[in-house]
Amino acid sequence: MFIQSEKDLESYICENVEEFKEFLGNNAFEDCYEKIEFIGRQVNVNGNFIDLLFLGINELPSEVSPFKEKSHELTFIVVELKYREVEPKDLAQISKYMNILDLFVPENLVDQEANCDFMPTRGALLGTDIRDDTREIQMCMEEERVKFATLSVKLNFNVANYSYMDEFARGVDFDDRISELKLNTK
Fold first, then answer.
1. How far are the Cα atoms of 107, 129, 141, 175 from residue 112, in angstroms, in the given order?
2. Fewer C-beta neighbours within 10 Å, C or N terminus of the chain?
3. 0.90 exceeded by pTM
4. How many CB atoms lie within 10 A of CB 127?
5. What is the mean pLDDT of residues 146-156?
6. Top-level CATH class of 6-157?
7. For residue 16, how far is the Cα from the chain centroid?
8. Contact between 161 and 181 (Cβ < 8 Å)
9. Which of the four pLDDT bands, split at 50, 70 and 90, describes residue 20?
10. Every domain of the chain and the residues it spans
């Protein structure tokens, strides 16, 4: 797939969602979650569309919650994609989405049966690079709830050791007037 836009990038990630979940779990959030589930793309939250939304899941040991057999901590993970440098306005955008999600806790996941706790929403901003003023703002944030990642595109050039010219020429159908052509040199 040739990536030329945010939409292309989003489609590529969705086609390779398992690999991207591994990136989130092992790199962006450094093994913070035992499991990461993909919720969807272009998720509508109060009229705002989040590029990609995931759910981080941790099962707590019974010593932490002795009254229940299982207990889980859940965290929304907002992913915003930029096919350009990440700017301060992008940090504001993802922060807005994260704050809106922090207000919403699905009732079916925090009832007595499910025994789940929602932790503050986290975010990942992916772009081709990060502007210096954006890095400065991120350094001043109280918590590191938003992770930055840059995209790198690697081109692989491979020589094709197969030539189909001979095979193609054998199968070419010529008009009789061409195949029976004779040169008259007189």
1. 10, 44, 34, 80
2. C
3. no
4. 22
5. 67
6. alpha beta
7. 8
8. no
9. confident
10. 6-157
